[in-house]
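Problem 12. The chain below contains 330 residues. Write out its predicted structure in token notation.
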Amino acid sequence: MQLIRTSERSCFKRCPQQHHWRWRENLVPLSYSTGPLWLGTGGHLALAGWYIPGKVRGVDPRETWDAYAKDSFSTMKYEKTLDDEIEEDFISVQTLIHDLLTAYLNEYGKDEHIEVLDVEHPFQVVIPGTVPVKLLGTIDLIVRNHAENDRVELWDHKFLKSIQTDHLEIDDQNGGYLTVGTHILREAGLIGNKEVVRGLIYNFLRKAKFDDRPKNSIGQYLNKDGTVSQRQGSPLFERYWIAKTAAERNQQIKRIAEEAKIIRLMDKGKIPLFKSPRYTCKWDCDYFDLCKIDEAGGDTEEFKGNVYKKADPYADHRDEAVNSKLIIPK
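Solution.
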């Protein structure tokens, strides 16, 4: 049966050629980067170790983050010689996220109203259609919110440079999760047969330095003389709530089946594989240089061999797989 992950859907619609290189040829960069993927992996590990099942919190997320960063740095020093610029960049990012997690704990404390039902929960569910497809994904956090009448919620952690929420009403990720969430949780025995998932919370952490200026009673930053500053800045954190109607969930099922069909036709060569070039490619695509070589008719196979390695994008969902999102470094 055809597999499709929630993140794969976004990748395919961003650029079918990018999707082919990652999800069909299994290519991932060899080069070191403190970019969004590396940082997001560490951030998710930190919060996975903090929000453990139950009402009591686990390992301080800063400890997990520091261990992850140290482990990554040690591995990179073993594999290659790091120049001063890369080392300085690494230390800067490590400190930034450590301080961000300190601010996060100051903001939310232990979230005592939250009872964790499960963390980094992988799922597989068959989406009906002319040709059924198996939707795969991992839910960051499943909770019972005792401050909201014991509401069952899905949480998704986001470590981003800026917090944008306008598009979330039509976002594929929450659409897919909320479409299958109730079924998944009932099947896993995490909620009762009459309980439903009420919605999803995006737990945003903005990658920026903590503003240590004093605040007044309503959270406004103050100048040294005690007056309200005109430069308030953007918040470091936001928890944004999304819910879906039955009609929206049905529409999502239809779209998943349609997207899978188009991917299947491209895989079989029945419709052409195309690219979606745009100005963001230079910084948001791991295959930018490969794409330029491909456009020029160069030797893409040699470049792939020198710059990329193979990594199964469905590895976490294979039989007897170990959940990589719960391998927390010590």
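Discussion. Strands lie at 2-5, 27-29, 114-127, 133-145, 151-160, 199-206, 237-242, 308-310. Students who got a different answer should revisit the alignment rule from Section 12.3.
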